[in-house]
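Supplementary Methods. Inverse-folding protocol.

Structures were first reduced to a discrete structure-token string of length 137. This string, shown here, constituted the complete conditioning input.
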């Protein structure tokens, strides 16, 4: 009886652990949230503001479909030292799978939360034609 109970308990614990690890969203607003979780939550909360900012710069862009899994934070270097960090997220626009857009935020530290005042686009919106990417017009 004790063996059976121990086996059932172990299997249950492993099952719950697997479910929790596969669903990382639960960490977003907890003390367990990483810097990346907080940055991603901030981006998702302000998705409409980001799209509106892009539409001011590029009026032909009607909608953006962000791929949140592409969010990266990378150092900006002047060749000698790190002078800041760049948070970047990739997406598609106007429901076209052949388009690509990158939205960037300048950060002081790698774990900073982005702000709308630091938003920019290091690359113009592009569309795939023939064998290359061309600026979307």
């Amino acid at each position: 009886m004790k063996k059976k109970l121990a086996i059932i308990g172990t299997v249950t614990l492993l099952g719950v652990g697997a479910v929790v690890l596969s669903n990382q969203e639960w960490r977003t607003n907890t003390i367990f949230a990483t810097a990346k979780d907080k940055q991603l939550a901030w981006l998702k909360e302000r998705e409409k503001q980001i799209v509106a900012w892009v539409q001011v710069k590029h009026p032909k862009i009607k909608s953006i479909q962000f791929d949140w899994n592409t969010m990266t934070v990378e150092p900006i270097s002047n060749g000698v030292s790190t002078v800041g960090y760049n948070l970047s997220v990739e997406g598609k626009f106007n429901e076209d799978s052949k388009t690509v857009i990158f939205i960037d935020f300048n950060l002081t530290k790698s774990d900073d939360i982005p702000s709308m005042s630091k938003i920019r686009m290091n690359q113009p919106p592009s569309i795939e034609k023939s064998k290359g990417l061309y600026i979307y017009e």
